Amino acid sequence: MREQHGIHLLYNKAYRSKEHILNQVFGDPWESFQRLPAYFYVLEQPNPGTMTKIKIDLKIQFKYGFIVIEASIEGFNYVIKHIICIDAIHLKARTSGVLLVAVCKDGNEMIYPLTFRFANFECTESLTWFVKKLHKYPDHEMLVSDRHNGISNAMEAIFPNAAHEIYAYHLA
């Protein structure tokens, strides 16, 4: 700001200005969490069989969310090999958290999304909750993950008969 516009701006003020603009453009992320039940309801209405779940804590604060769209399950049941890859992605936004995804590959070797789960952090409890929700759907021949302790514990508890493998990248 000083070099381009000749304005002396302290870091703290620049950060607050950036946050204000982000709230103006994208809205407050905490308000977005409050709108999730309405969004999930609207998502389920035109998509029969779609399942969404939200888990809250004793203080009625968001803990986990789960989305599986029926079209993804139908495609998985009829077209996709029953090999599911599960991994977590740490979100770097203002709210942070974790996005857990379950994906497969279709006949063209393209990534096929199956379901999503998001939570405030990655732990065995939230991962077990996700895998239990996933268990209500198709049969699984093999599950592949990065062998995070929470994912491994959840998969072994919920899918004891499925083969559990590790990503070659993590093995290396």
Automatic annotation (TrEMBL):
All copies of domain MULE transposase, residue ranges: 83-171
Q: Which InterPro entries match?
A: MULE_transposase_dom
What PANTHER family does this protein's entry cite?
Answer: MUDR FAMILY TRANSPOSASE, POLYPROTEIN, PUTATIVE-RELATED
Per its record, how is this protein called by name?
MULE transposase domain-containing protein
